[in-house]
Amino acid sequence: MRTSTTGRVGQYAALLAYLVFLAFPFLWLVSTAFKSPRELGSLHPTWIPRDPTLDNFRQAFDEQPLLRAAGNSLLAASAAAAIAVLIATPLAYVMARRRTRLAKAATGWVVVSQAFPLVLVIIPLFLVLKNLRLINSLVGLVLVYVVWALPFALWMLVGYVRAVPTELEEAAAVDGAGRLRTLVSVTAPLLAPGIVATALFAFITAWNEFFFALVLLKTSDKQTLPVVLTHFIGAEGVADLGPLAAAAFLATLPSLIIFAIIQRRITGGMLAGAVKS
Fold first, then answer.
1. 247 with 60: CB under 8 angstroms?
2. Cβ(149)–Cβ(81) below 8 Å
3. How many Å apart are CA 116 and CA 125, to the nearest integer?
4. How far apart are CA 239 and CA 165, in angstroms?
């Protein structure tokens, strides 16, 4: 009994330490965003600003086109997530249900593709987009995000499809439902939490992506929010810390808000629709 209690206490302690580790950068970012320049230069920093101010936010919006950059990021991330999910969902179903050599090869490609560093693909990718005249274009950036997110989306959705019992589809077939009707009426509703989760991860990945956007977008009117955040760092590497923290805090809000809204649907029972009449 004591061993079990001790083990449980140790698990909770490890979980608490992990949560503190994750929360510390964000809490410090929020604190920095509301500090005055005098507090930012203090040798004895504090968690809670002694004299909270919104000047950092005003300065951030005055110095850089944050709203336009946020709009570019939102457009690129939303389009990439939607297209990646639309492509990955039927492919994942085939890979999960058809245990053929081609499906196994596709699964291997999904795993191997995640090991490639961005530096290896950026030059040929740049040349391809240049020939297609898609450099400095949000359309080209969306295509890159779709290709980059597709393997991970497939890997996630294959797991969700395999979790749906084949007996449900067989029962629908016995009742006279065709393949398309079974997919639309039986399988798709059960995959909804997985599709939402996959779309969320694809969106967050594209929203936070920096390297591709930095290389492929040249003019300021097309740049995304992560690229614009680097403009708060001067030529000598000195960061305008207050406005940078304020802009970075605003950049993290969409991901947090979206996750807070749909997290119940993600954690909802995947097979909740199996008992519906």
1. yes
2. yes
3. 13
4. 54
Instruction: Please check the confidence at residue 239 and state whether its pLDDT lies above 50.
Output: yes
Q: What are 250's two structure tokens?
A: 């605003």
Place of tokens 């690129």: 76
Specify whether the CB–CB gap between 91 and 107 falls below 8 A.
Answer: no
Residues comprising the chain, all counted = 277
**Angle, CA 256 vertex, CA 9 and CA 30 arms, to 5°:** 85
- Which has the higher per-residue pLDDT, 276 or 53? 53
pLDDT tens digit sequence for 155-208 = 888 888 888 888 877 787 777 777 777 777 778 788 888 888 888 889 988 999
Q: Which residue has the tokens 């085939």?
A: 94
DSSP 168-222: HHHHHHHTT--HHHHIIIIIHHHHHHHHHHHHHHHHHHHHH--HHHHHH--STTT
**Across 102-119, average pLDDT:** 71
Do the Cβ atoms of 177 and 218 come closer than 8 Å?
no
Evaluate if residue 128 carries a pLDDT over 70: yes
- Sole residue written with tokens 């939303």: 78
Q: Dihedral sign for Cα 66, 69, 71, 77, please.
A: negative
